[in-house]
Every structure is written in C-alpha cells, then in structure tokens.
Amino acid sequence: MSVLNGEMVQSAIHGFMYFGDIVFAVSGALAAGRRRMDIVGYVLIGTITGLGGGSLRDVLLDRPVWWTREPVELYLCIMATLLTYFCRLEIKDRYKATSWFDALGLSAFAVTGSTVALQVGVPWTIAVFMGVMTATGGGVIRDVLTGNPPMILCAGEFYAVAALAGSFVNVGMLQLQIQPEVAMAAGFMATLIMRGASMIFNIRLGPPGEFVRVGGRNNKRTYPNHKQTPIRSGEA
Q1: What are the tens digits of pLDDT across the range 175-217?
Q2: How does DSSP assign the chain, residue by residue?
Q3: Per-residue pLDDT reduced to its tens digit, 59-102
Q4: Does 164 or 226 have the greater pLDDT score?
Q5: Per-residue confidence at 125, pLDDT binned at 50, 70, 90?
Q6: Is the pTM of this model over 0.85?
Q7: 203 - beta bridge partners?
Q8: Would you state the pLDDT for residue 187?
Q9: Residue 177 zone, left/alpha/beta (φ > 0; ψ -120 to 50; rest)
Q10: Which whole-number Å values give the CA distances from 115 to 29, 47, 231, in the listed order?
C-alpha cells in the first residue's frame, strides 16, 4: 500500500498525532489536578498520558519510539500540561472535562495507531488492534497513576469499543484504497461520535440478556474518580 507512504499522508498522521498528544496531555493534567498534585505531577501525568499509547505501539511493532528521535511530541505534552497548570481553567465539572478531552485523544490515536501499523506492513487485523492499544494505552496509565479504575475496565463503557470501531473504519477504508486522509477523518469521527454519544445518552453494554443499555440510572463511573476522597483525621 504505497499510497500510505505519501507526503500528505505523513502530514495527516502528524496532525492527528500532535492533536492527540495535546488533548490527552490536558486530560492527564486535569486528572492530576483532581489529585491536587504539584507542577511535577502535572507534567509527569500529562506527558505519560500523551506519549504512553504510541510508545507501547512502537515497542510492539519493533520500530523506533518516535518521540525519542523527534521530541516534538514531548515538547507539546509538556507545554499543554504547563498551560493547564498555570491557567487554572475554571471548569465546573473536571470529571466531565477530562472525559471529553480523553474522547478526543482516543479518536485521534485510534486512527494514527492503525495507520502507522499498516505502514509497517502488519495484517489488517493487527493494525486494528494497534489502533485500539494506541488509543487506550495512555488513558490506562493515567488512571492507574492517579488511583482511578481504568476506563477500559469499567463494565459496559463504550471506550475500547469506540476505539475499535474507529480503527476498523479507518483500516477498512484504507483496504478499499480510499484516500488515507478521508479514511482517517472517518475513523476519527466514528470513534468520537460513538464515545460522545455513550457519555451524553449514558449508553452502556449490558450483562447477558441485555446487550445494550440506554439511559436509565446515571452511572457516575462514566467520568473517572467521580467520588469524594475521604478527609483524614486532622485534615482541614
């Protein structure tokens, strides 16, 4: 698939990748803010969130980890976390804001991860899996480091499923020789629409006998760490 090696395709990959770095880094910084971390914690959590999924992908594909050669991604993540730290954005619901930034990063990395995998020459099924892993890896690391249940493990969440759908749309269109830029845009929107709709309308996968659940009781686990941290004795 020589069409995947064109200059415009590389520009599209970099554009989605840098966008994903920024929004994922902001989601990590917001998660650090909920834990009242200092500036080092902001930078650490935000940067790992932005770079984690792509780094895992590159290691598994046995290719150089991109940001160690071209540290633009690293700089973007650091800048995004520092801006989040110093601007102290007045966000009414930080849990919800984190999830929306996370959804944007999920969508961007689903298409970049799957496209990069196809460029390496792996089968399309592996490319789809690499898209899901790239999209979800940073968020898993963020949630673990901030003491939240990883979103991908929360029962019923349209999280990995949304990334899977976007990766499948992107890879499927590329296999049909559709222009890569169009395929990536379609995969991005498929992930974002599915993930966004699941948060807005509380759509969840159900237990056996109830495949999909729409609406009903509001499950606050849609937004990670939606619980009050108990105050220890002696703390104000």
Answers
A1: 999 999 999 999 999 999 999 999 999 888 877 777 788 876 5
A2: -GGGGSHHHHHHHHHHHHHHHHHHHHHHHHHHHHTT--HHHHHHHHHHHHHHHHHHHHHHTTS--HHHHSTHHHHHHHHHHHHHHHH----S-HHHHHHHHHHHHHHHHHHHHHHHHHHHT--HHHHHHHHHHHHHHHHHHHHHHTT---GGGSTT-SSHHHHHHHHHHHHHHHHTT--HHHHHHHHHHHHHHHHHHHHHTTEEE-STT-SEEESSS--GGGSTT-SPPPPPTT--
A3: 999 999 989 999 999 999 999 999 999 986 566 666 788 899 99
A4: 164
A5: very high
A6: yes
A7: 214
A8: 98
A9: left
A10: 27, 22, 46
**82-96 burial: b if 16+ Cβ within 10 Å, else e:** bebbeeeeeeeebbe
Enter the tokens of residue 183: 């395929």
Joined together, the tokens standing for residue 27 give 């989601």
